[in-house]
From TrEMBL:
InterPro entries: Ntn_hydrolases_N, Peptidase_T2. It holds the Pfam family Asparaginase_2. This is Isoaspartyl peptidase/L-asparaginase family protein. PANTHER family: L-ASPARAGINASE (PTHR10188), N(4)-(BETA-N-ACETYLGLUCOSAMINYL)-L-ASPARAGINASE (PTHR10188:SF6).
Length: 311
């Protein structure tokens, strides 16, 4: 629908065992609604889908309850390593970073990779040098050292295993919170964009990269089909190339967002027993979400309507 806009954001999927009371639930949902309304302001004022997803993803990275940016989990060395990507549906331009540290907003660094370099992805030391080249300031270590993340790390080390964000269940269980944040949008010009960012897995091996910065896995946008951001067990999403798979259902079978999301989730489960979820906006601005976990923190504004936030 030309002239209207749509926006979706997510903050992770899983059992969300840490949401044990109304106060915690309200904290998540209020953050999602606040960020949706900020995205609305961007789009109402004529901002592009790309501007909207970068702004919303940055705000999610700034909120320590989400596993991205300042709320990122710690790896096996007690350090933060973050991944992020952003994609423009107008011409399939994309930028991504992986294994970056001391960057408050990795999604903004990914945007710089897209606009200021000839590459799509930069990692680790190379990405950090590029950040310095672009004048992006370094955030101090203590910015990322939240008490909750330190406690998670210590618990994981004691158990000698990885843990996924902040659920209480064991790492082998499907009932965990797979911490990632994402934003997708369709602007009034009909352009689509997507962004995804994450801190990864508690106590993960140094250098581990998940699906979030992988174009076609954790993030995808094409004006001819849809915009997608995923959250889940990254290895499942990389193996199934889930974001591009959903786009292909639209392109090849003429599905809308809801149909393509359902087909994509069915494929994810059937092929790799995938754990997690996706948010999708199709080329007509229809919003959809799907997940294989008990819950997914997400919200949407469809065709300029009211902001809705849900688990």
């Amino acid at each position: 629908m030309q002239g209207s806009y749509s926006l979706m954001v997510h903050g992770g999927a899983g059992a969300l065992d840490n949401v044990k009371d109304d106060k915690t639930a309200v904290r998540y949902l209020e953050s999602i609604r606040r960020i949706l309304e900020h995205g609305r302001d961007v789009l109402e004022l004529g901002g592009s889908a790309l501007q909207a997803v970068e702004a919303c993803a940055s705000l999610l990275e700034d909120d320590p309850v989400f596993n991205a940016g300042c709320g990122s989990v710690l790896n096996e060395s007690g350090k933060v390593e973050m991944d992020a990507a952003i994609m423009d549906g107008r011409d399939l331009s994309a930028g991504a970073v992986a294994c970056v540290s001391n960057i408050a907003n990795p999604v903004q660094l990914a945007r710089l990779v897209m606009t200021e370099s000839e590459h799509v992805m930069l990692i680790a030391e190379g990405a950090m040098r590029f950040a310095d080249h672009c004048g992006m300031p370094r955030a101090p270590e203590h910015y990322f050292s939240t008490p909750e993340r330190i406690q998670q790390f210590e618990e994981a080390r004691l158990k000698h295993k990885i843990m996924l964000d902040h659920d209480d269940t064991e790492a082998a269980s499907e009932d965990q919170k797979y911490g990632t944040i994402g934003a997708i949008a369709r602007d009034r010009g009909g352009n689509l964009a997507a962004a995804t960012s994450t801190g990864g897995i508690v106590n993960k091996r140094m250098g581990r990269v998940g699906d979030s910065p992988i174009i076609g896995a954790g993030v995808y946008a094409d004006n001819e089909t849809c915009a997608v951001s995923a959250t889940g067990f990254g290895e499942d999403f990389m193996r199934s190339v889930i974001a591009k798979t959903i786009a292909d259902f639209i392109y090849m079978k003429g599905m809308d967002a809801k149909e393509a999301t359902e087909a994509g989730i069915e494929y994810l489960v059937r092929k790799v027993k995938g754990r997690g979820g996706v948010i999708v906006i199709d080329k007509d601005g229809n919003c959809s979400s799907g997940f294989t976990t008990k819950k997914m923190i997400h919200g949407w504004i469809e065709q300029g309507g009211e902001a809705v936030a849900r688990f």
